[in-house]
Design goal:
It is a single chain. By secondary structure, the protein is an alpha+beta fold. Helices cover 37% and strands 28% of the residues. The protein contains eight helices and eight strands; from the N terminus they run αβαββαααββαββααβ. It has an eight-stranded antiparallel β-barrel with strand order 1-3-2-8-5-7-6-4. A hairpin with a 7-residue loop joins strand 2 and strand 3.
Protein backbone atom coordinates (compact mmCIF):
# COMPACT_ATOMS: atom_id res chain seq x y z
CA UNK A 1 0.00 0.00 0.00
CA UNK A 2 2.78 2.39 0.95
CA UNK A 3 4.56 1.59 -2.31
CA UNK A 4 1.44 2.46 -4.35
CA UNK A 5 1.06 5.75 -2.49
CA UNK A 6 4.72 6.58 -3.16
CA UNK A 7 4.33 5.82 -6.89
CA UNK A 8 1.19 7.93 -7.03
CA UNK A 9 2.94 10.88 -5.38
CA UNK A 10 5.92 10.50 -7.75
CA UNK A 11 3.64 10.53 -10.81
CA UNK A 12 1.80 13.56 -9.47
CA UNK A 13 5.09 15.37 -8.92
CA UNK A 14 6.25 14.49 -12.45
CA UNK A 15 3.02 15.78 -13.97
CA UNK A 16 3.14 18.99 -11.94
CA UNK A 17 6.81 19.60 -12.67
CA UNK A 18 6.33 19.40 -16.42
CA UNK A 19 2.79 20.74 -16.71
CA UNK A 20 4.06 24.19 -17.67
CA UNK A 21 6.25 22.85 -20.47
CA UNK A 22 4.91 21.69 -23.80
CA UNK A 23 5.96 18.45 -25.46
CA UNK A 24 6.73 18.21 -29.17
CA UNK A 25 6.69 15.47 -31.74
CA UNK A 26 8.74 15.88 -34.90
CA UNK A 27 8.22 13.34 -37.65
CA UNK A 28 10.36 12.97 -40.76
CA UNK A 29 8.90 11.07 -43.71
CA UNK A 30 11.40 9.97 -46.33
CA UNK A 31 9.42 9.80 -49.57
CA UNK A 32 9.86 7.03 -52.10
CA UNK A 33 11.55 8.10 -55.30
CA UNK A 34 9.16 8.22 -58.24
CA UNK A 35 6.02 7.84 -56.11
CA UNK A 36 3.39 10.54 -55.73
CA UNK A 37 3.20 11.99 -52.23
CA UNK A 38 -0.37 13.26 -52.66
CA UNK A 39 -1.77 10.33 -50.67
CA UNK A 40 0.35 11.33 -47.66
CA UNK A 41 -0.48 15.01 -48.06
CA UNK A 42 -4.22 14.27 -48.18
CA UNK A 43 -3.98 12.02 -45.14
CA UNK A 44 -2.23 14.64 -43.03
CA UNK A 45 -4.42 17.54 -44.21
CA UNK A 46 -7.84 15.86 -44.20
CA UNK A 47 -7.55 13.07 -41.63
CA UNK A 48 -4.71 13.53 -39.14
CA UNK A 49 -4.82 17.30 -38.52
CA UNK A 50 -8.64 17.41 -38.05
CA UNK A 51 -8.46 14.42 -35.68
CA UNK A 52 -5.75 16.09 -33.60
CA UNK A 53 -7.69 19.37 -33.61
CA UNK A 54 -10.62 17.52 -32.01
CA UNK A 55 -8.25 16.78 -29.13
CA UNK A 56 -7.37 20.50 -28.89
CA UNK A 57 -3.99 19.99 -30.53
CA UNK A 58 -3.38 22.94 -32.84
CA UNK A 59 -0.56 24.81 -34.60
CA UNK A 60 0.56 21.70 -36.45
CA UNK A 61 3.33 22.46 -38.91
CA UNK A 62 3.92 20.59 -42.17
CA UNK A 63 7.07 21.40 -44.12
CA UNK A 64 9.25 20.35 -47.01
CA UNK A 65 12.89 21.20 -47.55
CA UNK A 66 13.83 24.28 -49.55
CA UNK A 67 15.57 23.29 -52.76
CA UNK A 68 15.71 19.96 -54.56
CA UNK A 69 16.94 17.72 -51.75
CA UNK A 70 17.16 14.00 -52.48
CA UNK A 71 15.61 11.92 -51.10
CA UNK A 72 12.64 14.22 -50.66
CA UNK A 73 11.38 14.49 -47.08
CA UNK A 74 8.28 15.77 -45.34
CA UNK A 75 8.49 17.19 -41.80
CA UNK A 76 5.53 17.14 -39.43
CA UNK A 77 5.64 19.15 -36.19
CA UNK A 78 2.96 18.47 -33.54
CA UNK A 79 2.87 20.43 -30.25
CA UNK A 80 1.22 18.89 -27.18
CA UNK A 81 0.30 20.70 -23.98
CA UNK A 82 1.55 17.74 -21.93
CA UNK A 83 2.85 14.21 -22.28
CA UNK A 84 -0.60 13.00 -21.30
CA UNK A 85 -2.08 14.85 -24.28
CA UNK A 86 0.36 12.99 -26.51
CA UNK A 87 -0.75 9.66 -25.08
CA UNK A 88 -4.46 10.49 -25.35
CA UNK A 89 -4.08 11.64 -28.95
CA UNK A 90 -2.10 8.51 -29.86
CA UNK A 91 -4.73 6.24 -28.35
CA UNK A 92 -7.66 8.37 -29.51
CA UNK A 93 -6.88 7.87 -33.19
CA UNK A 94 -7.61 4.16 -32.78
CA UNK A 95 -11.20 4.89 -31.73
CA UNK A 96 -11.99 7.98 -33.84
CA UNK A 97 -14.56 6.87 -36.40
CA UNK A 98 -14.37 10.06 -38.46
CA UNK A 99 -10.60 9.69 -38.67
CA UNK A 100 -10.95 6.04 -39.75
CA UNK A 101 -13.42 6.97 -42.47
CA UNK A 102 -11.40 9.83 -43.94
CA UNK A 103 -8.09 7.94 -43.73
CA UNK A 104 -9.48 4.74 -45.25
CA UNK A 105 -7.92 5.19 -48.70
CA UNK A 106 -4.55 5.93 -47.09
CA UNK A 107 -4.76 2.89 -44.83
CA UNK A 108 -5.87 0.57 -47.64
CA UNK A 109 -3.36 1.65 -50.27
CA UNK A 110 -1.17 -1.21 -51.46
CA UNK A 111 2.52 -1.32 -50.52
CA UNK A 112 3.51 -0.83 -54.15
CA UNK A 113 1.75 2.54 -54.31
CA UNK A 114 2.55 3.83 -50.83
CA UNK A 115 4.51 7.12 -50.79
CA UNK A 116 7.07 6.20 -48.09
CA UNK A 117 8.59 3.18 -46.35
CA UNK A 118 8.86 4.44 -42.75
CA UNK A 119 8.84 7.68 -40.82
CA UNK A 120 11.19 8.66 -38.02
CA UNK A 121 9.74 10.36 -34.96
CA UNK A 122 11.31 12.19 -32.03
CA UNK A 123 9.85 13.57 -28.80
CA UNK A 124 11.00 16.75 -27.07
CA UNK A 125 10.29 18.64 -23.89
CA UNK A 126 10.32 22.44 -24.10
CA UNK A 127 13.01 24.56 -22.44
CA UNK A 128 12.35 26.46 -19.23
CA UNK A 129 13.18 29.69 -21.07
CA UNK A 130 10.61 29.01 -23.80
CA UNK A 131 8.05 26.63 -22.27
CA UNK A 132 5.48 27.15 -25.03
CA UNK A 133 5.90 27.44 -28.78
CA UNK A 134 5.40 30.77 -30.55
CA UNK A 135 3.28 30.84 -33.69
CA UNK A 136 5.12 32.84 -36.38
CA UNK A 137 3.71 35.89 -38.12
CA UNK A 138 1.68 35.65 -41.29
CA UNK A 139 3.86 35.70 -44.38
CA UNK A 140 6.64 33.58 -42.90
CA UNK A 141 8.23 31.59 -45.73
CA UNK A 142 11.51 30.29 -44.29
CA UNK A 143 11.85 28.02 -41.27
CA UNK A 144 15.28 27.06 -39.98
CA UNK A 145 15.48 23.77 -38.09
CA UNK A 146 18.69 23.28 -36.11
CA UNK A 147 19.88 20.31 -34.05
CA UNK A 148 22.81 20.58 -31.63
CA UNK A 149 24.39 17.36 -30.43
CA UNK A 150 26.28 17.21 -27.14
CA UNK A 151 28.99 14.64 -26.58
CA UNK A 152 27.34 13.70 -23.27
CA UNK A 153 24.40 14.68 -21.09
CA UNK A 154 26.36 17.25 -19.11
CA UNK A 155 27.43 19.06 -22.26
CA UNK A 156 23.83 19.19 -23.45
CA UNK A 157 22.56 20.45 -20.10
CA UNK A 158 25.14 23.22 -20.10
CA UNK A 159 24.12 24.29 -23.60
CA UNK A 160 20.46 24.36 -22.58
CA UNK A 161 21.41 26.51 -19.59
CA UNK A 162 23.27 28.81 -21.95
CA UNK A 163 20.08 29.30 -23.96
CA UNK A 164 17.88 29.77 -20.90
CA UNK A 165 20.17 32.28 -19.19
CA UNK A 166 21.48 34.31 -22.13
CA UNK A 167 20.86 33.24 -25.70
CA UNK A 168 17.08 33.67 -25.75
CA UNK A 169 17.55 37.36 -25.04
CA UNK A 170 20.16 37.62 -27.79
CA UNK A 171 17.83 35.91 -30.26
CA UNK A 172 15.09 38.37 -29.38
CA UNK A 173 17.42 41.37 -29.76
CA UNK A 174 18.73 40.42 -33.21
CA UNK A 175 15.49 39.11 -34.74
CA UNK A 176 15.98 35.34 -34.66
CA UNK A 177 12.29 34.54 -34.28
CA UNK A 178 11.84 31.44 -32.12
CA UNK A 179 9.11 28.87 -32.84
CA UNK A 180 10.12 26.14 -30.40
CA UNK A 181 13.12 24.85 -28.43
CA UNK A 182 13.12 21.24 -27.26
CA UNK A 183 15.38 18.81 -25.45
CA UNK A 184 15.06 15.43 -27.11
CA UNK A 185 13.75 12.74 -24.76
CA UNK A 186 13.25 9.98 -27.35
CA UNK A 187 14.65 9.47 -30.82
CA UNK A 188 17.99 9.34 -32.68
CA UNK A 189 21.10 11.48 -32.15
CA UNK A 190 20.71 11.70 -28.37
CA UNK A 191 21.79 13.60 -26.40
CA UNK A 192 20.72 16.61 -28.43
CA UNK A 193 18.42 19.60 -28.64
CA UNK A 194 16.44 20.91 -31.58
CA UNK A 195 14.97 24.32 -32.25
CA UNK A 196 13.11 26.10 -35.02
CA UNK A 197 13.32 29.73 -36.15
CA UNK A 198 10.99 31.58 -38.53
CA UNK A 199 11.74 34.34 -41.04
CA UNK A 200 9.92 36.33 -43.67
CA UNK A 201 12.51 35.29 -46.23
CA UNK A 202 16.13 34.17 -46.55
CA UNK A 203 17.34 37.76 -46.75
CA UNK A 204 15.93 38.51 -43.30
CA UNK A 205 17.41 35.29 -41.99
CA UNK A 206 20.92 36.06 -43.23
CA UNK A 207 20.86 39.68 -42.10
CA UNK A 208 19.69 38.85 -38.58
CA UNK A 209 22.14 35.98 -38.06
CA UNK A 210 24.95 38.39 -38.96
CA UNK A 211 23.98 40.44 -35.91
CA UNK A 212 24.33 37.47 -33.56
CA UNK A 213 28.11 37.08 -33.37
CA UNK A 214 28.91 40.75 -32.58
CA UNK A 215 26.17 41.02 -29.93
CA UNK A 216 27.77 42.10 -26.60
CA UNK A 217 26.11 39.35 -24.59
CA UNK A 218 27.33 36.67 -26.98
CA UNK A 219 30.83 38.12 -26.81
CA UNK A 220 30.61 37.94 -23.01
CA UNK A 221 29.43 34.32 -22.73
CA UNK A 222 31.18 32.76 -25.71
CA UNK A 223 34.45 32.09 -23.91
CA UNK A 224 33.14 31.27 -20.43
CA UNK A 225 34.59 27.99 -19.06
CA UNK A 226 31.17 26.66 -18.02
CA UNK A 227 30.09 26.65 -21.66
CA UNK A 228 33.17 24.98 -23.15
CA UNK A 229 32.62 21.90 -25.34
CA UNK A 230 28.82 22.09 -25.17
CA UNK A 231 28.15 21.40 -28.87
CA UNK A 232 29.88 18.58 -30.74
CA UNK A 233 27.92 18.82 -34.00
CA UNK A 234 25.28 21.01 -35.65
CA UNK A 235 22.70 20.02 -38.26
CA UNK A 236 20.76 22.70 -40.13
CA UNK A 237 17.81 22.37 -42.52
CA UNK A 238 15.83 25.09 -44.28
CA UNK A 239 12.13 24.40 -44.63
CA UNK A 240 9.09 25.96 -46.26
CA UNK A 241 5.50 25.38 -45.13
CA UNK A 242 3.09 23.28 -47.15
CA UNK A 243 -0.13 24.98 -48.23
CA UNK A 244 -2.08 23.17 -45.47
CA UNK A 245 0.46 23.80 -42.70
CA UNK A 246 -0.92 25.62 -39.66
CA UNK A 247 2.40 27.38 -39.04
Amino acid sequence: MAKKIFIGIALLFFTFSYSQKEFYELRTYELNFGKSANLLYDYIEKALIPALNKNEIYNIGVFEEIGDAMPKKLYLFIPYKSINDYYEAFEGLKEDQDYKKVSNSYMKTSPNDFPYLRYETSLFIAFEGLPKMIKPDEGTSVFELRTYEGYNEDALNRKIRMFNESEFKIFEDVGLHSVFFGEKIAGPQMPCLTYMLAFKDMEERNANWEKFGPHPEWQRIFGLPEYENTVSNIYRIFLKPMSFSKL
